[in-house]
Please model this.
Amino acid sequence: MSQTKQDRSRGRFSIGTKMYLFMTLIVLVIAGGTAVISYLISARQIDTYFKRLAYNTAENYASLSDPDFLARLRVIAESDEYQALRDQAEENDDEAAIQAYFEEQGIWEEYKANQEALTNYLSHMDDIKYLYIVALGDKDAVTDMYLLDDDENPIYETGYFEDREPELYGVEPEERIEPTINNGDWGWLCSAYAGVYDAQGDLVCHVGCDVDMSEIMAERYRYFTAIIVAAVILVVLVIICAIFFANRVIVRPLASITKEMKRFKPDEDTDYEKAGVMELELKSRDEVYDIYQAIRSMQMNIIDHLNELSAAQRAKEHALNSLEQAESDIKDKEEQIGEISKQIYRDTLTSVGNKAGYVQKTEELAQKIADRTAEFAIVMVDLNDLKRINDELGHRAGDAYIKGSCHLVCYIYKHSPVFRIGGDEFVVILEGEDYQNRMALLEETRAAFARSYANTDVPLQERYSAAVGMAEYSADDYAVEFVFRRADSAMYEEKKRFKEQNGSYR
Model:
């Protein structure tokens, strides 16, 4: 072998090596990307939940606080006289001196009442670690003063100036302070602040709320580790399978073809076998097989030009086989596209039709109206008390309430398509059997919701309630929208009666 050939051999990557590298890279990117996206989505959802919990708790307690008392307490706590007394009381661990001072100022009873209220509120909030009242300085301040804490802390901490938390640097106290998650001296905490305002709308102080995130973060790291381990295992398995498949289907057949090509030595007055025309048994019928057939045909043409017609016939038969395969592939793709189309029109939470599906159905009804063959009714269902459930029990309970209510509607209107067109709104299109029984089904639906709402032995999110209205298509309706509006109006009247009987949640 010459030096040039040796150099080419050393710098050459076989097609098998390239395929293995490409497949490894693709699998790594897909598995790694999926793992990271899964982790980020999960982490964001959890963070959002705890931020909402911390802020809602702070805001709720701020609404229960006494701004007049807190304003007086702040003035007293900021005075030089009190600060000197507070420093001495802290040094001597003497709460009695602070109590005597508050009694002298006439605020002791109010102070104890507010402290007990805060302590009692905190004791009923399992997820809340700290709840306190703090007087924040302006955006350039480096310290903030703590006004009130629960009864586990000494009262001389009232008026204590502490270094500002990093997340509060540069924050305007008059503006809404977004909740943050930080790992500081107190560990992982989700912190939120809500302002307390007096009757004139002036900011007095802030209620601070801290949710302990230590266990959540530990669980998050465990979850991320599990994802990485699972991804690595999956990558290894997929790569092994891919390499086995590629080696069996492509690499080995190509190696066999290459070896057979080197045996080919054409000469006059010889037959195919002596000339070394390729003769392989390839099991697969794919592009590699096409390459093999083409090379073999050329070898045979060189040996015997008379085989040209036979080679052309084989090429034609192979083309027909390829065409059939292409038609089969197209059919498979069309079926896949059809399945994807179904998912586009399906609501992800309840699995009934979504708003896009409803629009598609109204187009079908519009065509029937144009053809004068329309006979249908529209039922509007609007859930009651969903906001209350979301506010009091969380959005998970709200989702369960939506799914349970949807199941009840689907059970009654089992022959009709149901669509979720809003957060708490459903539409049922009645045709055929359900249209013929529309009045009985309407009364059954209202009665079912009434029985469910009256059942106080089950949790709130299982007491399904909804306002239901129905309208029928008539010859005077030129569009589906007219029927929809009448059904919506009938539903709204039901909604008004429900609120008059049971009150309206705010």
Remarks:
- DSSP finds 16 helices and ten strands in the chain.
- Strands lie at 128-135, 143-148, 160-163, 180-184, 187-197, 203-212, 377-383, 418-420, 425-430, 466-472.
- The longest strand covers residues 187-197.
- The CA atoms of residues 358 and 419 lie 6 Å apart.
